[in-house]
Amino acid sequence: MSFVRDTLIVFRRQLRLSLRNPAWVIIALVQPILYLVLFGPLLTKLPLGALDGSTAAGSAGAAEGYRFFVPGLLIQLGLFGSTFVGFAIISDWRAGVIERFRVTPVSRLAIMSGRVLRDVLALTVQAVILVLAGVAFGLRAPVSAVFLSLGFIVLVAIGLASVSYAVALLIKSEDAFAPLLNSVVLPLVLLSGIMLPLTLGPGWLQGIGRISPFRYIIDAMREAFRGQYANTIMLEGVLVALGLAAVCLLLGSRVFVRENA
Q: Can you give the pTM of this predicted structure?
């Protein structure tokens, strides 16, 4: 019970700090909405078969185009919103906040879990706003698919935020942390088929894309937005999301606790 209490204490503190300065939350949401506005209409003109992997003829249309694009933007939001949270803990470490926590009886793991909980809440709110913006542009999807997608976002946020905090605490330098993130996140984004379907690319590119775990998650979310739940694509996405969250949370927790011992 002390771990839960300590986690909630850290969560409330981080939430108050976010509400006092919501700039990062707003900035993180602006980029995917800009993509929604600028790229979304282009996808409605693509052949339908390019989006669903079939040989169907005719333009995709607004509903199908956004059913393809919005899940990708949700994962993009989760990727960038979760991996860049490590900058905050570097700032706290430099200001002595982490050191002050170390001399208190608060659980070392709660220092991280409280922050992660705040990040999950912020990303969930951002994701809901992004979905509502998509509906305004023509997205049509089952309500159950939206809730399932939010579940995927929560798993992505838990895993990536945990790793981000742990790596940032190891590096302790914004100058080193920023290029490291760019060198990892950008290839993952490009290989996940967020912007355009990888089926438009050559076979070797599609093969390399299988390396990215987020491709499986995005594919599962797109299936859900089409109303398809009981198939192999969905099973793969769920297993990958659960596995990614578990592995990242375990690694992040071990590093964080060791660094704060």
A: 0.86
